[in-house]
Amino acid sequence: MTAAREVDLLVAGAGPAGMTAALIAALEGLDVLLCEKSEQVGGTGATSAGTLWIPGNSQSRAAGFDDSAAAAERYLDALIADRSRRDLRTAFLQTGPAAIDYLAARTDVQFVPCGRHPDYRGNLPGAAVAGRAIIPQPFDGRLLGADFRRIRPPIPEYMLFGGMMVGKDDMPRLIGRFRSPGNFVYSAKLFVRYLVDRLRYPRGTRLMMGNALIGRLFHSLQKRNVPILFGAAITDLVGDRNGVTGARIRVGGEEIVVTARKGVVLATGGFGHNKKFRAAFMPQPVPEHSMSHHGNSGDGVAIGQKLGAGIAPERGQGGLWTPASRTRRRDGSEGLYPHLTLDRAKPGLLAVNSAGRRFVNEAVSYHDFVEAMFESHKVEPSIPAHLICDARFIAKYGLGDIHPGTRDLRRHERRGYLMSGRTLDELAQKIGVSPAALRETVARHNRFAETGADLDFGKGETELNRFNGDPDHRPNPCIGALATPPFCAVAVWPADIAVSTGLATDPDARVLDADGRPIPGLYACGNDMASIMAGAYPGPGTTLGPAVTFAYRAVMHARDRRAH
Ligand SMILES: Cc1cc2nc3c(=O)[nH]c(=O)nc-3n(C[C@H](O)[C@H](O)[C@H](O)COP(=O)(O)OP(=O)(O)OC[C@H]3O[C@@H](n4cnc5c(N)ncnc54)[C@H](O)[C@@H]3O)c2cc1C
Predict the structure, then answer these.
(1) Is the overall model pTM greater than 0.85, yes or no?
(2) Residue 355: what are its φ and ψ, rounded to 5°?
(3) Residue 141 to residue 148: CA distance in whole angstroms
(4) pLDDT of residue 319
């Protein structure tokens, strides 16, 4: 059966990019339809940390952190050079702050500045230590009523007690809950709120990070009565390279042909789970793990390509990465824990390849860590690599899916997550590396811990390293000895948190054909759009900052188009 529908703007994909586009379209007076393949909003965005990299944003400026688009442009020029179009980067820097201000002034999508949150390549000109990252304000999911269930939950590894979200600022207070009356009261309040929530909701309703961003976008869409079609997948476009006039949507057993007078916005989240595209656009050997939403099967890129759209970059890294360990969840399913910021930079951890040798400054960004894995793997098998520490480290800082304060490690060994040995030799045998090499690596690293100077990889030398280290540890906040048995190891694999290759666009997010000409009426944003960072990772919020900015630019351009 084919039914027909007509709107001004059709948006495909209800992640941060698509929801932003639909919300702005409604605010601009367009008749908009948002279609989402799954039964929930949020996509990967709901499971993300929710940070946006927006250089020169006014929220940070108001908090006293000065920045300029010119400095950020120098930084991106140094990092990316001509690997992406410079006019796209300029458009991002010019419009990002305005897009955020627009949302802040007219919707519930409110952000707070992160303050100090260093860029990931602090040695490059124009890099900043503070002022570029913003995060969504926590959101009270109870405001959504029964529709709270429509918000995709975070990964289980990011929740406590099977459903309680905590933010970065909560963690020191929860860990130190018995250290001060203030911390105790704070933690008790969080816990009581969670218990009360669980009487009525499937999980806690105090939403943080990416879940707060999605909750805020969803609430704002509801307030403006923006229709969202759930279980509705875009399958094809109507039109050709000379103009797109609508799309085909499969919903239930039915096909709807939607005519879109002003255009179609593709925001289906990229190709994280499309084997063919992974093989074409990612490094070899193709990483097997993706942390993107399982429904991100490259639909937007595929239908754009079918119409004649160009892909950028055609060859390249294709992904933005994190090291991830494999977890076994309580229900028996497999999960992935992203080692983003909590453990790698802390003193007393090192990473080794199959030769038992370090190959990286463990405290670099998650993306750079995996890039180093790829490099090392060319010489010595480094996929998986192992993060090594001692039990004292885990008790103090946690390790991946094992929370700080954990002293009894047996459960984690039984579920196959952690390996341990009473000696380094025993651990080396369990993880399959040379005992002599591991002993030597740890001994050398322990000497660095005494002097505070990592002569091999310079750990602890950058602002980013120290930001994620332990400020109370001396002389170097990122280097500590591995001295107290048992010694422990967790295996890590490369996993993409976002793809970087996508549909080529111009600065208004108009999709370009293979000859570089805009296809009238077709837009792409989020991970369907080729990343302006071209496989580089400048700082916290590298994908969500551009996702929101280009959603805004796409809609403003579509608004001003003459309807066909
Ligand atoms: C653990 C983790 C932490 C992260 N933290 C950050 C961070 O702090 N900052 C940052 O910038 N980035 C972060 N990211 C990356 C970020 O989450 C993604 O880049 C971002 O969510 C991409 O947004 P999107 O809207 O393009 O896609 P998604 O958020 O993946 O949404 C895509 C949506 O499209 C839907 N869809 C798919 N196919 C179709 C179809 N055919 N028709 C209709 N709908 C369809 C999907 O179901 C999904 O709902 C993180 C990622 C992970 C995994």
Answers:
(1) yes
(2) -85, 0
(3) 6
(4) 94
